[in-house]
Structures are given as structure tokens and as C-alpha cells.
Input
Amino acid sequence: MSNHMADVTIHIDENTDHATRERIQDTLRELPGVMAASSHDERPHLMVVEYDPDQVNSRTLLDTVAASGVHAELIGL
Output
């Protein structure tokens, strides 16, 4: 793993419950290069992902979230 680190905020369009967000976060954490994925119940539409851009890119992160059945956009790079 490299010493590079980036983070991105993903906006999830749908209203999701805590369990759904945990499932999405667990899926993201399984990707090579993802260090952390988190969200808070106070802001359920936002998820922050920390990752190594040498191993995974933000498009892959977004595609992984969308594959869980929600609509989402990157709102920070």
C-alpha cells in the first residue's frame, strides 16, 4: 500500500436506514485500497470514504455504492 491517501464524500439520494448504510460501508471496506468508510445517523445522505488512489479510484467507489441499489453522486474529491 502506498503512502497516498484521499477522501471523497458520496451523497446518497435515497433515505436509507442505519443497517443499509452499514452494509454499503462494509462493501466499500472490502475494496482494495479503502481504509475507511463512514456515515452518521444525523446526516444519513452523506458517506465519507478514505482510500488509496493508487489502488482504487473514486469512480469505482461510486459504482460500488450504486451497485447496492441506491442513486449517488460524488460531492468532493
Notes: The radius of gyration is 11 Å. The first strand starts at residue 6 and ends at 12. Residues 18-29 form the longest helix (12 residues).
